[in-house]
Amino acid sequence: MDRNTPTILPEYIATTLRYPLHLGLDLKQIEHHAGVDLSNLDTRRQPFSLEDVIRLVQANTHLSGLPHYGLANGHFTSLSCHGMAGLSAMYQSTYADCLQTGSRLCNLLFPPLTMHYFETEDQVGVRLYECLSLAPCTPFFMEWIMTNFHNILQFLLGQEHQPDYIAFPYQAPEYQHTYHRYLKCPLYFDVEHAEFVVDKTLAQSPLPLADRKIADTVEQRFIETLPREEVYVDRQVRALLAQHMGELLTFEEVAARLQMGTRTLRRHLQKMDTSFVDIMNDLRRETAISQLLNSNRSITDIATSLSFSDSSAFSKAFKRWTGQSPREFRLSFGSEVGWNTTALFMEN
Known about the structure:
The structure is a single chain. The protein is of the alpha+beta class. It has 2 domains: about 65-205, no CATH class; about 230-348, Homeodomain-like (Arc Repressor Mutant, subunit A, Orthogonal Bundle). About 55% of the residues lie in helices and about 5% in strands. The protein has 18 helices and 5 strands. It has helices spanning about 10-20, 25-35, 50-65, 70-75, 85-90, 95-110, 140-155, 175-180, 200-205, 210-225, 235-245, 250-255, 260-270, 275-295, 300-305, 310-320, 325-335, 340-345, and strands spanning about 115-120, 125-130, 165, 185-190, 195-200. A 5-stranded mixed sheet has the order 1-2-5-3-4. Helix 4 runs parallel beside helix 7 (about 140-155). The longest helix has 20 residues, at about 140-155.
């Protein structure tokens, strides 16, 4: 799976296009500016690639003239836009169940990201990991997701409730004040991973629409619409590695966590023309690119987070991947907005 692999359902593209169309933008204008075919969008079955989506985001951000396009678009999106996955989450018993279900199903719907539900003594939340780098549009995706999460929380539990905090894995943008218009809770920037966190007592309160039978039925129907399980094995491996990047899991450990034998896992990956080592290297490259472009973390810190023995080993690997050292890459692309993402992310 890479940035040109078709993995993103047309329904999600149609959902994110509702807001620019609401602003008065023309679909043909968007299509021309992005260089992405949007004909027959209502009946299309072929998924879009992440590269397609990034080009659409860049086009709509430019055409709308809104630097906070992700916040505005996410605020415009309702729970119903997520189809059967949204319905299954809505009918869960508690908001904590809703977050767990939403994370599990969103991982199938949007493979470039993986969401991990977690609990502490006082809080529950969702942590986001990039399986494919979302740069240069990381802010859009995180803004869209977090405002959408915020709206769903208030829809299910009431307008008076707010998250404990929301964290973003990039530096605060110049329009940081706009975040507080949409997200009236404590906000943190330039952290390692995006997080949406709520009070545990609130999360364990019953949802007004709770109906376990409906929730289970809808989720089963959703699963039945997806391709065979084998298609998702490489995504599962990538998601698991992304969540445990600092631990450098072995092939045997990954197979055990996926509850399958090593022979079975190796066979599935071979059928998809990939391997455990390929996925690990791809993920390291994508994560490194995101951290270099989105954060102020030192190269040594990034190397450590990716389980390299030292910054020298990381620099050699990164130069093999991109043709540049991490420092050269950060200086070349860190301040650019409209660079050619396809060329940048092709492995040398």
